[in-house]
Write a structure and sequence with these properties.
Blueprint: H1 14-24, H2 27-39, H3 42-48, E1 50-52, H4 59-64, E2 70-72, H5 80-91, E3 101-104, H6 117-121, H7 126-142, E4 147-148, H8 172-187, E5 200-204, H9 223-230, H10 232-239, E6 244-247, E7 251-252, E8 255-256, H11 261-271, E9 277-278, H12 288-291, H13 297-307, E10 312-313, H14 317-327, H15 333-349, H16 362-370, H17 374-386, E11 389-393, E12 406-410, H18 436-444, E13 449-453, H19 466-474, E14 478-484, H20 505-513, E15 519-524, H21 532-537, E16 540-543, H22 551-559, E17 623-625, E18 629-630, E19 634-635, E20 641-649, E21 655-665, E22 676-685, E23 690-697, E24 704-705, E25 711-712, E26 716-725, E27 728-736
Parallel strand pairs: 1-2, 1-10, 2-3, 3-4, 5-6, 6-9, 12-13, 12-14, 14-15, 15-16, 19-27
Antiparallel strand pairs: 7-8, 11-16, 17-20, 18-20, 20-23, 21-22, 21-26, 24-25, 26-27
């Protein structure tokens, strides 16, 4: 982790912090909680199970009376530091002086905005995510915010769904690595440190598999699919010590997650031993009525609480209805106490009882309001560079020479700042973002003539701007086109049925292509798009997603070769919407595709294959792989299999390659995917340099949820694949021998 992110001890010296933290892991914390619970009224207890927004008309009254557990802390446009300070002072006027916690979406930065999660996933570098989230924690906690609603751990296989951009892609193993990295980044294994904050794994579970890709829609899947594909990232987060879990908005197999006893009490609490808090999504408890499982708010509160939801986010349903249910004997006060205990324990772990103003640093917070940290900006640029994926580079159009005489910068995203930040960008300010146009101007200086034309917008059909764009292209030696989606087209509630370029952007590209100038397309978007025409006709394509505050400098560094792109796709690009859902780790069929045989699984109008597969990404250099070498072809039940491959840089530039290792179980009690990711490593190689890369596989890596839903391995034949993407691999076989 970079040295500027190292988190020091504030408020009290490190030794005192460590001693206090040890106490928080002892029986003393339970004694403190029991003592406090004995002095709390029923309404005070239920208040701790309630979060209300800053827009609630009685917010200040409830806080001053000790009737509320927490409120928003991520409030764009507000002086958050002074707001959280004011609200906490108000809480200290309450009879029991129970401190508030402040929460919200700190998803990819707080003041300094990093690449959106799907972009960061393209780096295939979990340590990068951990460091970025550590920076976000420093900035957020300095403003008094101590709880974030991230990471989103859905397995994203449907690009119609708007929240793909908030997740880490389609593979359970890859997403699990980012789950652990995010929890480590925000929590650092020590919530007592005032520069760490609680993380929340969301949305539990299956939310990303909504029917028709439409947000909030129903999800229906087998238990095997749930356990095998959708639960592992959440389990990884729980094992990493995540503080909170947020149930999904959706109904899973007919039962809304917010009232799903099986998900929350059986899997989370019983199977996994989760000790943290379960917080509803925004207004999700009263929405049980719209789901058709609750006839009124009282029933909604009862079902959510009995299912295991600890905290009601925003709706106030617990606040109003739980007292009635306790008085009627429907819910015991002992069960209320059990839920409140979880809340109070977390507040103790955060250090709030030791010092209610533990979070909030006026110097850091006010400095950040005036000017972003240079160190944080440098790291944001590094993260953005690593997140860029080179999709195509015919005839090595890229990188451009800095000696080029003139350059056209065209497109609705060329001089845009707000959209670069992506959806849900906390307190990020568009005015602080650096556009692509600005980044290129700063890169090339005055000796390169820049011709800029917006050309069109996202929803326009008018071609009135095309003329100026074509003129700019004609006057230039090369063209950079910044096209894609606005930030508002992805994120929560923003599903799309069509995945082509919005508006008439494709027509703009076609018009510019007629100039016969070299065209480089820079895509900025929140999901995979169907861009087969671009792939067929445009010589160079860069996928940049939404890269945040330092977008312009990062993209410019790639375009002009100061950074050799190394990103790999964490999600498959379809050729056509009709292929969706499409993902690399699919099951085989009884009739896999065979050319010329109509009675095998295929389309008659489009290939089965994706446009760009999972794990794909080019470089300005080339790499070769040897065939994988195994330390044994017969792996014992308790042995470790070493899978080694020689990777060589066969090009003329230094660069990073992401070496990927996959397996396939050839015969099992249930159908297994054609490939399953089991490891990856980033390797830096100079021209001509070769390195040996080794992956170690144990029996647990070969395990899966079997026919009876028990987890384990089965002896038999396996294939192992190693290469630079899921579709560009070399393979060999081995046998897992039967155990004793």
């Amino acid at each position: 982790m970079l040295t500027f992110i190292l988190i020091s001890c504030f408020g009290m010296d490190c030794k005192a912090q460590n001693e206090y933290h040890k106490k928080m892991n002892s029986e003393q914390i339970n004694q403190k909680v029991d003592s406090l619970l004995g002095r709390m009224s029923l309404q005070e207890k239920i208040g701790q199970l309630t979060i209300m927004g800053g827009d609630h008309k009685n917010l200040k009254e409830y806080i001053s009376k000790g009737l509320l557990g927490g409120t928003n802390g991520v409030l764009p446009g507000k002086d958050v530091y002074h707001y959280t300070l004011k609200m906490q002072k108000l809480a200290m006027q309450s009879p029991l002086k129970i401190p508030l916690w402040f929460m919200g979406d700190v998803i990819h930065g707080f003041r300094t905005i990093f690449p959106a999660p799907l972009a960061m996933a393209s780096s295939w570098n979990p340590s990068l995510v951990e460091s970025a989230d550590s920076v976000a924690a420093v900035e957020a906690t300095s403003a008094g915010v101590d709880w974030t609603f991230t990471p989103l751990l859905g397995i994203t296989r449907d690009p119609r769904w708007g929240r793909d951009i908030e997740g880490f892609g389609e593979d359970p193993y890859l997403v699990s690595q980012y789950a652990k990295a995010t929890v480590k980044g925000f929590q650092q294994g020590n919530l007592m440190n005032p520069r760490t904050m609680m993380a929340t794994a969301k949305h539990f579970a299956g939310y990303s598999d909504v029917q028709a890709g439409r947000d909030y829609n129903t999800v229906d899947m087998s238990m095997h699919r749930l356990y095998q594909m959708y639960l592992p990232p959440f389990h990884a987060a729980v094992k990493q010590g995540v503080s909170a879990i947020m149930p999904a908005f959706i109904a899973l197999n007919g039962i809304p997650a917010t009232a799903n006893h099986f998900l929350l009490r059986h899997i989370l609490r019983k199977e996994w031993g989760f000790k943290g808090v379960i917080v509803s999504d925004y207004n999700a408890i009263p929405e049980l009525q719209q789901h058709g499982v609750a006839g009124n708010p009282v029933s909604a509160a009862r079902q959510a609480f009995k299912a295991g939801v600890t905290i009601d986010l925003h709706s106030g349903t617990y606040f109003k209805e739980l007292p009635k249910l306790v008085r009627k004997g429907v819910i015991s006060e002992a069960s209320i106490d059990s839920a409140v205990r979880r809340v109070l324990i977390k507040k103790y772990e955060l250090g709030l009882f030791n010092n209610p103003f533990h979070y909030g640093d006026s110097t850091l917070a006010l400095d950040a309001q005036k000017k972003l940290s240079k160190a944080h900006l440098r790291f944001a640029k590094k993260a953005a560079e690593e997140s860029i994926v080179l999709l195509k580079n015919k005839n090595q159009v890229l990188p451009l020479s800095k000696k080029i005489h003139s350059l056209a910068i065209i497109g609705p995203l060329a001089n845009d700042k707000a959209d670069l930040l992506g959806p849900v960008h906390a307190l990020g300010e568009p005015k602080e973002a650096i556009s692509l146009l600005q980044g290129i101007k700063e890169k090339v200086g005055s000796h390169v003539k820049i011709h800029y034309a917006k050309g069109t917008g996202f929803n326009k059909q008018s071609t009135s701007g095309f003329k100026k764009a074509v003129e700019a292209a004609n006057e230039s030696d090369a063209v950079i086109m910044a096209i894609g989606e606005s930030a508002g087209m992805s994120g929560e509630g923003n599903s799309r049925s069509k995945l082509g370029l919005p508006g008439n952007q494709l027509d703009l590209v076609k018009a510019v292509m007629k100039t016969r100038k070299p065209v480089i397309v820079v895509l900025m978007n929140g999901r995979p798009l169907t861009i087969d025409w671009l792939n067929d006709h445009v010589p160079a394509l860069l996928e940049t997603w939404f890269l945040g505050t330092e977008s312009g400098p990062a993209i410019s560094n790639v375009i002009f070769g100061d950074y050799n792109p190394s990103g790999k796709l964490p999600i498959t690009f379809p050729r056509d919407v009709g292929q969706i859902p499409i993902f690399y780790n699919h099951l085989n069929t009884g009739r896999p595709f065979k050319p010329g045989d109509r009675y095998t699984s295929h389309y008659i109008d489009v290939p089965n294959t994706p446009l760009y597969p999972f794990g794909y990404g080019l470089s300005y250099t080339t790499f070769s792989f040897s065939k994988p070498h195994l330390n044994t072809q017969k792996m014992g039940w308790s042995d470790t299999l070493n899978v080694s491959v020689a990777v060589k840089n066969t090009g003329e530039k230094a660069g990073n390659e992401v070496v990927q290792c996959y397996i396939r179980d050839l015969v099992a009690s249930v159908s297994r995917p054609v490939k399953v990711l089991k490891g990856f490593k980033r390797v830096y190689l100079k021209p001509g340099e070769m390195k040996k890369v080794t992956f170690q596989l144990s029996r647990s890596d070969l395990s899966f949820y079997k026919r009876n839903l028990t987890f384990g391995a089965e002896p038999g034949a396996f294939k192992v694949f190693v290469g630079g993407s899921s579709s560009d691999v070399k393979s060999t076989r081995f046998q897992l021998l039967k155990g004793n």
